[in-house]
Design brief:
The structure is a single chain. Among the domains are: 66 residues, SAP domain (Transcription Termination Factor Rho, Rna-binding Domain, Chain A, Domain 1, Orthogonal Bundle), CATH 1.10.720; 140 residues, PINIT domain (Jelly Rolls, Sandwich); 129 residues, 2-Layer Sandwich (Herpes Virus-1). It has a four-stranded antiparallel sheet, covered by helices on one side. The chain has a four-stranded antiparallel sheet with strand order 5-13-10-11, with no helix packed on it. 22% of the residues are buried. The radius of gyration is 46 Å and the shape is elongated. It is an alpha+beta fold. It has 14 helices and 23 strands. One of its GO terms (cellular component) is chromatin. It catalyses: S-ubiquitinyl-[E2 ubiquitin-conjugating enzyme]-L-cysteine + [acceptor protein]-L-lysine = [E2 ubiquitin-conjugating enzyme]-L-cysteine + N(6)-ubiquitinyl-[acceptor protein]-L-lysine. One of its GO terms (biological process) is regulation of transcription by RNA polymerase II.
């Protein structure tokens, strides 16, 4: 009975969430909660209420998932967990002795892993598979779990790593990388780290990429889940390499894989892009004509499409215009900056429309490349026309500026300090005016009055001479020189005040 109890408990540990919910519901227990809660509840159920009926339900659920295996070892190996390495990485010694382990459990039955598929990465070319995607199995109900796996490098693989060139000091172009993803057989899986991850290779902890801080308030830091380079801590010989992964068990299922890869740089990908993915100018013109072709159902006929020559990533003039084949817009971004950005922080998202922009769908716009060569640096925008031609937008801007200049009236600048410029008499008028009008002139040095013609054509009236003084003085115009009747002319009269008029200053 004890053996059957142990067998049932190990079967329960391999159940999925749906199996656990079915088992608990059949026994009248709650089926809500995370996976670790369901596992703990089912194990307590098996321990406290063990019965032939419960054992039968456990066996039926287990055989529905593993119809060809049974027994304790099979119960410890759930579906989707590979138990053998690829022939490229399996050494004869390890295969003959059955020394391949995961989580410390011997795996005598080699079964290829074909369920979990990792997404291919542009900066990594897989050369050989050292460990296929293998699920991390929790050993108990603790939050932190330790899972181990071992592999050996063949002499050829070790030589590849030793003789590889360096991308930068200490980083080789041939690496052994560790990749982790969700255990899911539907589609391809992206790299995803479990919580509280730590990787130890041959008793030495290796670096795992950390979190990127966020500048936006309320946005949590983002962690880039990329392959972990474990090459510096490996034994480049026939000695067995042991990898220990510490991970948080919070209900999610994860799989781990180890690959021998060649690492590319942004410059390498750019060379591939120029060699294999350049769209001709003729094909680009056809696409523009298709977009601008008149649609009878549309009320507005599009006669042109404007495209900026400024990269939306770095706000600089485009160098190599690039876009995604699946995007509907004609706006391009700079290929060099886009690849460099994804080398540091891989997102592969179109900076124009925020849609996925995988490397295999990138293309260089041949027409826009020709336009960039033909236009000067000061042109920042062009317009595609219905016939596939184009024109710069700078001419329209210059024409608008000229039109604004021609419609703006030109007003002269008036200097209030120069009498001849503003048409007014000076503020301190103690000398005679040099009038140019024939109707008034200065008769005597002590008298100021009359009108003068300003340079602009207007008449200037001296208001320091009141009406009574004009009547008394006669206000007659004449020559400024003395005549024969100057002796008979009366002396200058004073006004209503007892001071000479030539001492009056008008402010």
């Amino acid at each position: 009975m004890a053996a059957e109890l142990v067998e049932a408990m190990n079967m329960v540990k391999s159940f999925r969430v749906s199996d656990l919910q079915t088992l608990l519901a059949s026994m009248g227990r709650s089926k809500s909660g995370l996976k670790q809660d369901l596992v703990g509840r089912a194990l307590r159920l098996v321990q406290t209420e063990y019965s032939p009926e419960l054992l039968k339900n456990v066996r039926q659920l287990y055989e529905s998932r593993f119809p060809k295996t049974s027994g304790w070892l099979a119960a410890r190996r759930p579906e989707g967990v590979p138990v053998a390495y690829s022939p490229l990485s399996s050494s004869p010694t390890a295969t003959s002795q059955g020394a391949d382990y995961l989580n410390g459990i011997s795996k005598p039955l080699p079964t290829p892993a074909a369920e979990v598929k990792l997404v291919p990465l542009p900066f990594y070319q897989t050369l050989e598979t050292l460990l296929p995607p293998t699920e991390l199995i929790s050993q108990n109900n603790e939050k932190l779990q330790d899972s181990q796996c071992i592999f050996e490098l063949t002499p050829n693989q070790a030589d590849q790593i030793r003789n590889a060139s360096e991308l930068r000091p200490g980083i080789r172009s041939i690496q052994v990388v560790l990749r982790i993803c969700y255990t899911d057989s539907i589609g391809v899986q992206e790299d995803q780290y479990p919580p509280n991850i730590a990787v130890k290779v041959n008793q030495s902890y290796c670096h795992v990429p950390g979190y990127y801080p966020s500048n936006k308030p309320g946005v949590e830091p983002r962690r880039p889940c990329r392959p972990v380079n474990i090459t510096p801590w490996l034994h480049l010989s026939s000695v067995t390499n042991r990898v220990t992964i510490t991970w948080g068990n919070f209900g999610k299922r994860y799989s781990v894989a180890v690959y021998l890869v060649r690492v590319f740089t942004a410059a390498d990908l750019f060379s591939q892009l120029k060699l294999c993915s350049v769209e001709s100018a003729e094909r680009c013109r056809e696409r523009i004509q298709d977009k601008l072709r008149f649609d009878p159902e549309s009320e507005i006929a599009t006669t042109g499409l404007r495209v900026s020559l400024i990269c939306p990533l770095v706000k600089m003039r485009l160098g190599v215009p690039c876009r995604v084949l699946t995007c509907a817009h004609l706006q391009c971004f700079d290929a060099v900056f886009f690849l460099q950005m994804n080398e540091k922080k891989p997102t592969w998202t179109c900076p124009v429309c925020d849609k996925p922009a995988p490397f295999e769908l990138l293309t260089i716009d041949g027409l826009l490349s020709e336009i960039l060569k033909e236009t000067s640096e000061d042109i920042e925008e062009i317009e595609y026309l219905t016939d596939g031609s184009w024109r710069p937008i700078r001419d329209d801007k210059e024409r608008d500026r000229e039109r604004e200049r021609s419609n703006t009236p030109e007003y002269p600048v008036v200097d209030i300090c120069i009498p001849e410029a503003n048409g007014h008499s000076p503020a301190h008028s103690s000398t005679s005016l040099t009038g140019k009008s024939g109707s008034s002139s200065v008769g005597m040095p002590g008298v100021t009055g009359g009108t003068a013609v300003a340079p602009g054509g207007g008449a200037v009236v001296d208001l320091t001479l009141d009406s009574s003084s004009e009547e008394e003085g006669g206000g007659a115009g004449g020559d400024s020189e003395d005549t024969e009747d100057s002796a008979d002319s009366p002396a200058p009269k004073r006004g209503r005040y007892n001071y000479d008029k030539d001492l009056v200053t008008a402010y």
